[in-house]
Amino acid sequence: MALVVSKLEKSIGTITLNHHEKLNCLNRELITQTIQALHEFERAKAKAVVLRAMPGAKVWCAGHDVNELPLAGDDPLGYTIPFEQLLRQVIAFPAPVIALIEGGVWGGGCDLALSCDILIGTNTVSFTMTPAKLGIPYNASGLNHFIRVMGLHKVKEMLFTAQPVPAEDALRVGILNHLVSRDEVDTFTYELASRICRNSPLAVQVIKAQLRFLTQGHLMPVEAFEEIEATRRRVYQSADYREGITAFKEKRAPEFKGQ
Ligand code: YXS
Fold first, then answer.
1. Strands 126-128 and 165-166: what pairing?
2. With bands split at pLDDT 50, 70 and 90, how would you rate the model's confidence at 225?
3. 6, 112, 158, 223: which sits with the fewest CB atoms below 10 Å from its CB?
4. In testing the pocket of ligand 1, which one of 17, 22, 110 has its CB within 8 Å of the most ligand atoms?
5. Which domains, ranges and CATH numbers included, belong to the chain?
6. Mind listing the pLDDT tens digit for each residue in 173-217?
């Protein structure tokens, strides 16, 4: 089944997440198909890409497929997992990737959205960053995606509380570039993409690459990185991590013991 539908028209590639039964949660197959679509657009020299869900979707993306998260021991967000590869591909894609967002965005879905270059949403949008609720030690590269878009205190509130950031707030804190009505969001997004396409693709590509390097974060001493990884390891090997994932699957509130 096509979990992702892609088409290229007038140099604009569109990737539509198409697994609405499971609210476009990021399972391995959906991620692989998205990666493939991006490769094809790169080969075809697309000048912009729109990443969206089906029109009118209530959920843009429900985050990682919780059933595919390791129960204990392994890093749920290791460097080589397909999800991390997808984020790096979006960030390094040689043309702007525009997220057209309707509905809720959860966990890894927020990271995917914030990895895009421009975000356009309707008033049904909300962003909920869930790792603390599930007992997941989010990774440093992911946190950096948030820090380079939003103010630090907002990032902290979003991650510590795991509460939804509604559309108006998302616009105010800089997650969304534009908040547009449902009726206008398609036209608005594709007009913006067309405007980009009329400009020099080489200039746009190089500006995007420079911005990526300039905002990639500060050099970190090796010891600090090792310390971060060690503290993350303690969390994903903990009883609380197992409890978070198990509680989600059993549809109950987790009972965290801090162990
Ligand atoms: O019961 P069926 O088979 O129909 O399947 C249901 C859900 O189980 C499934 N589904 C998911 N399956 C795996 N992983 C998911 N993340 C996921 N989300 C949903 O989709 C079917 C329809 O969902 P249902 O019945 O719950 O829909 P609803 O309209 O009542 O509620 C919509 C949501 C979004 C409020 C609800 O589905 C939900 O809470 N989903 C999980 C959202 C979430 O916590 N995502 C974070 C995933 S973990 C993650 O991304 C990271 C690793 S982290 O947290 O660290 O960022």
1. antiparallel
2. confident
3. 223
4. 22
5. 4-183 (3.90.226.10)
6. 999 999 999 999 999 999 999 999 999 999 999 999 999 999 987
End-to-end CA distance of the chain: 41
Residue 223 predicted with pLDDT over 80: yes
Angle (nearest 5°) at CA 138 between 59 and 16: 30
Cut 0.85: pTM above it: yes
CA of 24 to the centre of ligand 1 (A): 9
Ligand 1 atom closest to the CA of 142, numbered from 1: 56
Mean pLDDT, the chain, rounded, equals: 95
pLDDT the model gives residue 41: 98
How far apart CA 210 and CA 204 sit, in angstroms, is 10
How many A from CA of 130 to the centre of ligand 1?
A: 11
Q: Which two tokens stand for residue 198?
A: 């009329």
Distance from the alpha carbon of residue 245 to the mean position of ligand 1, in angstroms: 12
The catalytic position among 19, 63, 64, 109 is 64
